[in-house]
Amino acid sequence: MDQQDPRSGKPALRRLTAFGGVIAAAAAVVVGVVVAFVFAATVVVVGLMLSLLVGLAAFAIRASRMGRKKDRGAADDGVIEARHLGGHHWVAYGWNERA
After folding, report:
1. What is the pLDDT along the chain (99 residues), one digit of tens a residue?
2. pTM for the complete prediction?
């Protein structure tokens, strides 16, 4: 049997496989960079959504506290007292008093 050195003969094929290896490595790097950017963008979007959610929760808590404060001061809510005297006659109290 005639054994040949693997490096002997067909130098064009050797160059083609080397060029293909370089292309495959470059493609792998490009795909890796694209995937890294996609994951980084996903983390940024999740962070923005989380900050928006925390901000909305803060506004909801603040509105809830303001609503409770208004409930405590029911006497100062702008409603005046009125008494029915009969028929179509009513008498209102407190409308001319300033706070």
Report:
1. 455 555 666 777 888 899 999 999 999 999 999 999 999 999 999 999 999 999 999 999 988 887 766 555 555 566 777 888 888 888 887 666 655
2. 0.49
- Residue 80 structural domain: 12-93
Number of domains in the chain: 1
Residue 49 tokens, joined: 């959504």
For the stretch 65-71, contacts whose Cβ atoms lie closer than 8 Å and that sit 24 or more positions apart, written own/partner, are: none
Beta carbons within 8 Å of 84's beta carbon, 6+ residues apart: 90
Residue 52 lies in a domain: yes
Q: Is 7 domain-assigned? A: no
Provide the token pair at 92. 């209102």
Task: Please report whether residue 2 resides in a domain.
Answer: no
